[in-house]
Input
Amino acid sequence: MEVANFINGQKVRNGQTLMDVVSPLDGSIISNMPLSSSKEVDQAVEAAKNAFPAWSGMTIKERVQVFFKYRQLLEENIEELTQLVHVENGKTMGEARAEVLKSIELCEFAVSMPQIVTNEIQEVSKGVECRIERKPLGVVACITPFNFPNMVPHWTVPNALVLGNTVILKPSELVPLSAQRMGELLKEAGLPDGVFNIVNGGKDVVEAICDHPEIKATSFVGSTRVAKIVYKRSSNNLQRCVALGGAKNHLLVLPDAHVDMTANNVVASMAGCAGQRCMAASVMVGVDRVQHIIDRMVEEAKAIVPGDNLGSVISKEAKERIERYITEAEAQGAKILIDGRNATVPGKEGGFYVGPTIIDYVKPDMAVAKEEIFGPVISIIRAKDLDEAIQIENSSNYGNAAAVFTQSGGLAKKVMEGASAGMIGVNIGVPVPREPFSFGGWNESKFGVGDITGKSSIEFWTQNKKTTTKWNPEDKRDWMS
Ligand code: NAD
Output
């Protein structure tokens, strides 16, 4: 599939420099995509601006009709969309399918908007009414990362569109294929030209979006380093911005936790999507005597095989970075219980694989305890009690997710209250809130007000218009006159 920009309903290439799109499954080149510049962002903004009056002028009930059809198209094309995610991102077919199913759920929330966004009206004094209506912002932009090529664009695009905005999507340059299909299927579902546009590229496109005077709001999902750049740059240009960053999620495991369920959940959270989830378990804090659970985790991890039930990581650089972290931890005295370095898959020697890795006796000041590794690696820190475990969790710069595994409601509550993270799990390793509950972290895992999905996104993608009317004919004077 050739990747082009999608502007005003047309696939366009302007003779830009092309970048190879590589499948991390085997290192093969599967496509190439244009590295665009501010010129293409200008063209997309122009198209989105022209489409805005007609699109925002429709009722919300009319706008969601496109998404009823689009949701159906996602279902009809699920095998192809799953395959695309698998090939461009490297996750397993099962994980890729789950991602597309999540996109379908996100569309279901978007089509429910007419039931939620009903506006407010009250007669505030006799004959005088105040009303609040949610109005779209105008042209808005969404910038997305490589790890969920199908789902993360669906966190923002359907809601922003249904609420009446016109959108420019800048997908990760590593995974442009799923986004391209999204453009095609939205068109097939009846979305008018110019309402949704895609500009492919890297840093230059992101900077042009942040600097553009006609873009009213930008959402960003990616690493904390870039989230900070985007948040500052876009806010400096007086855009509304929410920027989700990286993570270092702690799972606190207590000795009374259910052994099989806990071991299974911790390992699945660490290794699922090859650890390339912002909700992945990265540190396990073992409280007091949890050796029996760690032994069970090692058994679970042994059943995870790269190329079979474990996908690849995104690139050669990612594989090297992850392996460097493991080597450094070992040199600093940590104990590698299961070692995923140098993994290869027969017949896919050009692919980028790291096996599941469990590192025990990690100290809180080691890099593997503090930095985002973004691979199928978990660091175990031993803590003497729950207070120390919570203090270790609290010391992280990040704050996306945290979870506790225990059978004690009282101890679970202590973690629910004490953890410094936006999304908390109790006996759940990947505590992603499902629609209509919103998704978003704390600390350096998110910059800006509100969350990115669910009800919170309604605030982000709209502005309130407050209208006061007086239709009583008598000349009644009061403090409002
Ligand atoms: P990334 O920050 O490298 O890239 C994200 C986007 O920013 C891409 O579209 C990329 O083209 C652009 N970009 C990259 N460098 C840039 C620069 N210097 N200036 C401007 N734009 C730039 O992230 P990634 O590697 O694609 O994704 C993985 C990261 O995303 C991880 O840190 C992960 O935790 C995070 N993530 C967070 C969430 C969340 O909800 N908090 C969800 C998914 C992924």
